[in-house]
Amino acid sequence: MSSPDKFKQVEDEYFRLKGQLAVGRITAEQFDAALQALVLKDANGRAWMMGVDSAAWYVNEGGAWVQADPYAAPANPVSERPADLPERGAPSPPPPSPPPAYIAPPPSYPASPPPPTRTAPPPAPTRTAAPQQNRGGCGSLLVKGCLALVALVVCAAVAGFVAFQSGYLTPNVLLNLVGLGPATIQVTNFRDDPITVIVTPLRESEGSSSFSTDLTLNAFDVQSTHITNPGRVHVEFQGAQGIPALGGCTLTVRGGDQFQFVVLPERIVVNRENSPPSSGRDLIIETSSLCR
User: Which of 8, 14, 9 is nearest to 265 (CA)?
Assistant: First the structure.
C-alpha cells in the first residue's frame, strides 16, 4: 500500500474513534490508547501521529512534535509504534473486592418426635351413605380463573398509572413500542463558533420540501427536534450567518428513530442510536449509508 493510502487509512480510523467518543461509545482514556496505536514511521525513521483534538498531523523532529503535512513528504510509512514514543502511565489497580458477607450458622432444630404408636383401624360401618356429587366443579374453576384475570388486569392498571405519574411511561414511549412514535434528531456542536442547523421534511409525492425547523447552536451546545411524520428528512449544517456551508445529510426516518449528529471542527459525525452503524465510514456524513 502506498504512503498516502496509509495516512488516509489512519485518518479514517481516527475519525471513526472520534465519532465513537463523541456519542459516548468509548471513553477518553480508550480514545487516547487507540490513538497511540495509530502512530506511523516513514522511511527516514520519523514518527507521525494525529493530534488528539486538532485532527492535524504532527512529526517527531529531534524529540519535539511539529505540525507537518505528511502528503507533501516523500514518506513510506509502516504501521508500527516507534520505540521512542513515551508510554502512558499504567491504569490504577481495581479496588479490592469486599469481604464475603457473614453467613450465620444454621439454627439447630429439635430432634424429630418419635413415631406415633400404631393403632388398629376403626371397624367399618355396617351401612355407608352415598357420596354427594361434586356439583359445580367446572364452574368453580371458571370463577377462580376470572378472579385471577381481574386481579392481573387491576395490577397492570395500577403499575401503568404509577409509571405514567412518575414519567417512565409516556404517550411517545407507547407509540415507539408499535413503531408509530416521533423520531428524534439531536445535534451537538463541538466547534468553537456558532452553527445553524436546518431540518426540512421532504414531500416524496411532490418532490419538494415542507416547513423546516431551524436550530441555532453556540459552541458546545446540544439541541434536539422531533419528526412526527416518518419519511425523508434533509438536515443542513451551516456556519455563522449561513457561511460557510458545512455539509448536509438526507435521512430516511422511521417512527421511534433516534439520530445523533456531532459537529466537529473537521467532520460531522452521524449515528442512529437505536441501530448504531457497524462501519467507521457510516459515522461520517460524506460516506454514511444513513445519508442516502
Answer: 14
First to last CA, the chain: 30
Q: Of 273, 223, 227, give the one whose Cα is nearest residue 254.
A: 227
C-alpha cell, 118 = 400404631
Question: What's the average model confidence in pLDDT over 39-45?
Answer: 87
Tell me the sheet residues that pair with 250.
Answer: 234
Question: Is residue 8 within 8 Å of residue 77, measured between CB atoms?
Answer: no
What span, in angstroms and rounded, lies between the C-alpha atoms of 184 and 150?
A: 38
| Cell digits of residue 59 | 512529526
Long-range contacts of the stretch 32-40 (C-beta < 8 A, 24+): 32/88, 33/88, 36/81, 36/85, 36/88, 37/81, 38/10, 38/13, 38/14, 39/80, 39/81, 39/82, 39/85, 40/6, 40/7, 40/10, 40/70, 40/75, 40/77, 40/78, 40/79, 40/80
Q: What is the structure's pLDDT at 92?
A: 32
> pLDDT above 70 covers what percent of the chain?
66
Cα atoms found within 13 Å of the Cα of residue 37, Cβ hemisphere only: 8
Residue 118: pLDDT over 70: no
- pLDDT recorded at residue 161: 72
Whether 214 and 169 have beta carbons less than 8 Å apart is answered as no
Say if CB 32 and CB 52 are below 8 A apart.
Answer: yes
CB 253 within 8 A of CB 183: yes
Q: pLDDT (tens digit, 9 = 90+) per residue, 202-221? A: 875 444 556 788 898 898 89
Q: How far is 253 from 182, CA to CA, in rounded Å?
A: 9
